[in-house]
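Record passed on underneath.
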Amino acid sequence: MLRGVGVSPGVAFAPVVAVRWSFPEVPDRNVSPDQHDAEIARLHEAVAAVLGQLAQLRDRTAVRAGPEEARIFDAQMMMVQDPTFIASVETLIRKNNLSAETAYEFKALELRNAWQGSRQAMLRDRLADLNAIQLRMLAHLLGRATDEAWLGEIDQQVVILARELSPGLTVQFDREHVVGFICEEGTRTSHAAILAHSLGIPAVMGVPRALDRIAEGAIVLLDGQSGVIIVDPTHDELEVARLQASRRHKLELQLEGMASSPAETPDGVRIKLQGNVDLPEEVEPALRHGAEGVGLLRTEFLVSGRATLPTEDEQTEYYRRVGAAFAGQPVVVRSYDLGGDKFPAAFASPQEANPFLGWRSIRVCLDEPALFRPQLRAILRAAADRDLWLMLPLVISLDEVLETRAILAEEAESLRRDGIRAAADIPVGVMIETPAAVTLAAEFAQVSAFLSVGSNDLTQYTLAVDRGNARLAARFSPLHPAVVRALRQVRLAAAAAGIPSSVCGEMASDPISAVLLLGLGYDRLSIAPPSIPLVKWVVRNMPMSAAREAAEAAAEATTTSAVETILREAVGRHLDLRLVDPAGALPHPSTGTSLPRSP
């Protein structure tokens, strides 16, 4: 059994077809000075040709996957014609007497190495786009075919296995024949993953050495939710998977009609399920899945990978657009959560021994008014017509909240004086992500409009466990008793102050953990959009009285396994546990392959 990251739900079963690609060999070719202009002209011809190819892909994607997904190619088109990058290639041609393809390959390699070595998650997400552009540009400059030429005829159902997939290749696969994707690289927020989800093709990414471990033609069984892959499954394993997939399919049909239904427990308690939005193309899926506003609007994409910081007008337009999409529902904008693994190219990234304990998040914003004030002004301007809230990450002291509120008031007054239409004030809340914030939760609640728990960082900092360390993965659990009790303390602090409280980490997307959060009293969960229907189904079938009883017992438990057992037993009394178990639709080899009981 192999494991990766499930990025597009569903179960697939088919033989593997491997897609092996590599960058073309580019000969080192020098040119004479009198050929510089001709080489630069060839470079611009290639840019124009690739822009044409991407425009065609954008139009095709709009038809096959939707208009928001098509915007992925807008981003690639911006990258192709990035004036800073093109100017650097031109300079290399002139200074080093290089051909256009040699100079382009050199600069692209330089950029790719910088992104690969970056701790910025968003830059790593965009590596596949960078690679796709480089392939197209070099193909044109060398007079070779692009990746579309690989596609050929596929006359049976297959699972595509690759090191990574470009969005351009992903969107061209025929859903009738390509039933699944397995990639060595890629993340949930990569463009290929977003497209796979929109096309309804199950996908697992981030599977180490998959090309070496899965033979061409081997039968694979993959679960795009849990990220589990079984190579050459037995007859019994296939039967178990088919039965569980059938149950999942019936549930998915039921979930499709649930977007407009309220998230209300059988005993009448209303919960607000909001969406987490990382990128503009995730707005539409959040709406489609029934998100009641946005509980976490990440803003780092506005600055990551850019040579210059975004303008106030550019930010205002984006916040207005998201606010308009969720008209009548709140959109919680998180101020720049930079540092740690995210720093804009336009910013000097400090070298720190422990960057996740270093200069990041609200600390960067407060120290860099040229970065922070335009964002606050943009949010205030957009909030003139929309229900926008501001959320501050990694807050550890009241001073940080009070200082931010003072800056916000100054900028609101400045906008008023200049006659620019803007909100006079907006709700300001804090993210609870550290033990310090938990300890001061009652005090934060007195100066904040809401509290929102970032469960990933809260778990990491409470347990002193690096969530990115594979060796410690088993120790990283938001159901650890210390985390559960911290969650209870935060919720009680918010309730005592009479303000809303929410959870916006991955924990809220897990159906089992969601029951704990409901029982503790959290009235808002902000969730990855694809998980909203399943969590809503859990809410609508789990009595709040039962969730409260389970949460009270879980908060008194002393071990993680005890917390898990309490929650699973509680869920199992009201729902088919196999449908909500994150272990997924596939049988677990270590537990045998006995068929499940009939529904």
